[in-house]
Amino acid sequence: MNIPYLAFNVMHQSIRTEMIDAFTRFYDSNWYVLGDQVESFERRYSEYFSCNYTVGLSNGLDALRLALHALGVQEGDEVIVPANTYIATLLAVTFVGAKPVLVEPDPLTYNIDTARIAEAITSRTKVILPVHLYGQAADMEAILNVASNNNLVVVEDNAQAHGAKWSDKYTGSWGHINATSFYPSKNLGALGEAGAITTDNEALAKLVRKLRNYGSEVKYQNDILGFNMRLDECQAAFLNIKLDYLQKWTNERQVIASTYNKLLTGVGDLILPYTHLKASHVFHIFPVQTNYRSALQKHLTLDGIGTLIHYPVPPHLQKAYAFLNKLEGNYPITENLAKKVLSLPIWPGMTPEQIEHVVNSVKSFFNHAP
Ligand SMILES: *Cc1c(COP(=O)(O)O)cnc(C)c1O
C-alpha cells in the first residue's frame, strides 16, 4: 500500500466538474485580474469567518508583509513571533525592516507560550504575531490581554488553521489585521499561489487594497507606494468552490486525527498532539514526537508511507537568520521539537484501510525496534 504524505487526488476528483466549469467561466470571461471572482471570494470568506473585510492577495508571505506594512511597522520596531514556526512568519517581519523577537512554545500545544510574551516586550515592540501552528488555535484571549496591557497590535498568522476556533471564535478574526495563505497544501488551498488579509478595520482594509495594486484605487492615480500583490482571478474562482467543502474536509481531518489519537495512545515513546480545552484543532498537520524519529521515518518509508518534518531546522538556526546571533541552545523547547517531531499523513479522502496501515506500521516499528 502506498500512502503519500499528502494527496490531492481524492479531494480534487470529487469537485472536478465544478472546478473545470469554474475554469471555463473564468476562461470565457475576458477578465483575468481583480474581477467578480476575487470580489465574491472576499465577500464569502468574510461572511464565513465573521470578519468585516477580506482582501485577496498573492500569497501568505505577502499577506503577512502587507499586514505589517499597513500597520506602519518599520525599521527599529520589534515584532514578537513564535520561535517554533515556518520561516515565512519571520521573513515578513524582516522584509518590513523590523526585528523578529522569538518566544518559545508551550511544550504541550506547540503554540507560542503566552506566559513568556511579557518578558519579550521592550520599548520598541509594536506587534505580537501569533501563529496557529499545525492547525490548533493559539490562546487569543491571553495574547490580546498582554497586547492591550502594553498598547500593542496583534496580527494572526492563520496560514495553517482555516476553520479553527479559540473559545468559539474563528482564528483570523481576533487580531487587528490577520494574514493567511491558500498555498495548495493548506487546509483551504488554491491551485497555485494565493493569500489574504482579514480585518474588521475599514481603514486598514482600504490601505491593503491600495497597497496590493500599485498604491492605486483609481486607475493611473497612485496615492502611495504600492506593490503588485493581487490575488489571481482564476485562483479566486477555484477558492470559491473549495470554500464550500472546507467544513467537510476539516471534519475528515479531525476523524483521522482522533483515530490516530485513539489507536496510537501508549505506543512506544510517542507523544501525540494535545488540544487545549478552549481550542479547536483543524489538523493541518498531525505531528507526533519520538526519540527514534529517523528510524521510525525509515520504517514508514519502507512500508510505503510518506512523512514530513515540520520543521527540521528552526528559523533562528537557519543560515538566512545567522544575523540574529541566536545559537543552538537559545530556544531549547523549539530545538527539541525540531529533533523529535514527525508528521503523519493526514488528508481528506484517506480510507480507513490507509489509516489502519499507518497505525499498524507505527505499532510494528515500536514492537520490534528500539
Ligand atoms: C504557508 C505558511 C506561510 C506562507 O504562506 P505562502 O502562501 O506559502 O507564502 C506563512 N506562515 C505559515 C505558518 C505557513 O504555514
Features:
370 residues, alpha/beta, 3-stranded antiparallel beta sheet, globular, binds pyridoxal-5'-phosphate
User: Overall pLDDT, averaged?
Assistant: 97
Rounded radius of gyration (Å)? 21 Å
The chain-level structural class is alpha/beta
Major beta sheet, strand line-up: 3-2-4-5
Helix content: 25-40%
What report would you give on this structure?
The chain has 370 residues and is α/β, with parallel strands linked by helices. The protein has twelve helices and 13 strands. The strands form five sheets. It has a four-stranded parallel β-sheet with strand order 3-2-4-5, sandwiched between helices. A three-stranded antiparallel β-sheet has the order 1-9-8. Helix 2 (16-28) packs antiparallel against helix 8 and helix 3 (36-48) packs parallel to helix 8 (233-243). The longest helix is centred in the C-terminal third of the chain and has 19 residues, at 246-264. It is globular, with a radius of gyration of 21 Å. 47% of the residues are buried. The model has no long low-confidence stretch (mean pLDDT 97). The site of pyridoxal-5'-phosphate (PLP) has 14 residues, from helix 4 and helix 5.
